[in-house]
Design a protein that fits this description.
By secondary structure, this protein is mostly helical. It is 59% helix and 0% strand. It has four helices and no strands. The longest helix has 21 residues, at 53-73.
Length: 88
């Protein structure tokens, strides 16, 4: 890929052609050589995907809360759940 290509234009192009966020993430990683986390952050903050930002944020918060509840249950039937940002 040509150096200096505008990633916003790439994301608009991909979305217009039916790419989902995860596919766009993979494409950025392959085309530009980004790390997965860098591509995710760029996609999340892009104009191309701005209409999904709030709903995606709510989904992540709901999933995190569900995992917290599972972790708090301390059920022996579940694997141990540790949140990276909270330490031990």
């Amino acid at each position: 890929m040509q150096a200096g290509a505008d990633t916003e234009l790439i994301l608009i192009f991909l979305r217009d052609r039916g790419f989902h966020k995860i596919e766009s993430n993979y494409a950025l990683r392959e085309l530009i050589g980004m790390k997965a986390s860098e591509a995710k952050n760029l996609i999340d903050r892009s104009k191309a995907w701005s209409d999904t930002y709030e709903s995606d944020l709510r989904l992540r918060e709901t999933a995190r809360e569900a995992l917290r509840q599972l972790a708090d249950s301390k059920s022996p039937d579940l694997p141990r759940i540790v949140f990276e940002d909270e330490g031990e």
